[in-house]
Write a structure and sequence with these properties.
It contains 13 helices and twelve strands. The protein has about 375 residues and is an alpha/beta fold.
């Protein structure tokens, strides 16, 4: 089954009771049993829900995984992954990542004896320099948030294939339409399904896809034991969004390419960060491991101040000033004061995240309107 067919059909069956083509929203907290322990596969809604099960089957197929496990948010999904670790374990993470991920690692899990190191992994071979006998997990974002750095997933996985280390890839920015980390050797894939998978800015959701039964069993246990599960309405919304994932992401890629090219020509802009440029670091790797370059573009200004960034952020019309990404509407944000404010200023500066850096999530509107919107704001 090809990807464009998977988004509509994988894991989805007509409702056996009515023939409804859309998966029903099973809005129930419990299920009647024939006798103690004898039921139709569903006992309690924290543990199983038919709407959630359909979504998990669909997500597993999209990422070519063994199984998928859904959660109430992307950070809840990340929390479950980190709970696979034990005190004393070490995690190597890319040094450019979502501020919420950094916060969860450094302010929550570090209290429980999990150690984190944040390093540049654009040279994938350098990963071996940071591995110790306590390293149990490698955490990758690619493209990274917000600098859009590219990490060679296959090279990282090959470097540690002889070690007892799980490679986790946050695939939120790319979506399964553009990138398949498990095919490249990753063990665990994370999604904030709030973003491209849902695609309509109307749901908060998270998902984990794994490559083998052992991990699936562990994460299903954590899902049930902790209870950070999504409701059936949320699962329905993500299922509905996925049906147009390929159409939405492809249009966002086309628009982002034209917007990045426009920004290069503007005299107020200092740097444009977009993996589709041939001079972007690791562009060749992006060309190899991605099917297109995504709908995210970041840029900073020649006048590198928060005040100048704020002037531009307050003047756009079609680009709405808001956190999040991946919806049909275009969004504009200021990482230093919004999505990445939990990262200390000194750490942000190290990775090139300037005070004037602006991040765009390019939507599916007419690209001429979007370019005019940015041109007016920059002017």
């Amino acid at each position: 089954m090809k990807f464009n067919t998977k988004v509509i059909h994988a894991g989805i069956e007509p409702d056996p009771a009515t023939g409804a083509i859309m998966t029903p929203i099973y809005q129930t907290s419990t299920y009647v049993q024939d006798s103690p322990g004898e039921h139709k596969g569903f006992a309690y809604a924290r543990s199983q829900n038919p709407t959630r099960s359909a979504l998990e089957k669909n997500l597993s197929a999209l990422e070519n995984g063994y199984d998928a496990i859904c959660f109430g948010s992307g950070l809840a999904a990340m929390d479950a992954i980190l709970k696979l670790l034990s005190p004393g374990d070490e995690v190597i993470s890319t040094n450019d990542l979502y501020g919420g991920s950094y916060r969860l690692m450094t302010q929550v899990f570090s209290k429980y004896g999990i150690n984190f190191s944040f390093v540049g992994l654009e040279d994938a071979e350098s990963i071996r320099d940071h591995i110790t006998e306590k390293t149990k997990m490698i955490w990758l974002e690619t493209p990274t948030n917000p600098m859009l750095n590219i990490i060679d997933i296959s090279a990282v996985c090959t470097s540690v294939k002889d070690l007892d280390i799980n490679v986790v890839v946050d695939n939120t920015f790319a979506s399964p339409y553009l990138q398949s980390p498990i095919d490249l050797g990753a063990h665990i894939v994370l999604h904030s399904a709030t973003k491209y998978l849902g695609g309509h800015s109307d749901v908060v959701h998270g998902a984990v896809i794994v490559d083998r039964k052992e991990l699936a069993d562990q994460l299903h246990f954590i899902q049930n034991a902790v209870g950070a599960v999504p409701g059936p309405q949320d699962c329905f919304l993500v299922l509905r969004g996925i049906k147009t994932l390929h159409l939405r992401v492809q249009r966002a890629c086309e628009n982002a390419r034209k917007i990045a090219e426009f920004l290069l020509t503007n005299d107020k802009v200092a740097n444009v960060y977009y993996p589709g440029f041939v001079d972007h670091p690791n562009h060749e790797i992006a060309s190899r491991q991605m099917r297109d370059f995504g709908g995210m573009v970041s840029f900073d200004l020649k006048e590198d101040t928060i005040e100048m960034a704020n002037k531009i952020l307050s003047k756009t019309h079609y680009f709405s000033l808001a956190e999040s990404l991946g919806g049909v509407e275009s969004l504009i944000g200021h990482p230093a004061t919004m999505t990445h404010s939990s990262i200390p200023h000194a750490e942000r500066v190290k990775i090139g995240l300037t005070d004037s850096l602006i991040r765009l999530s390019v939507g599916v509107e007419d690209v001429e309107d979007l370019i005019l919107d940015l041109k007016t704001a920059l002017g």
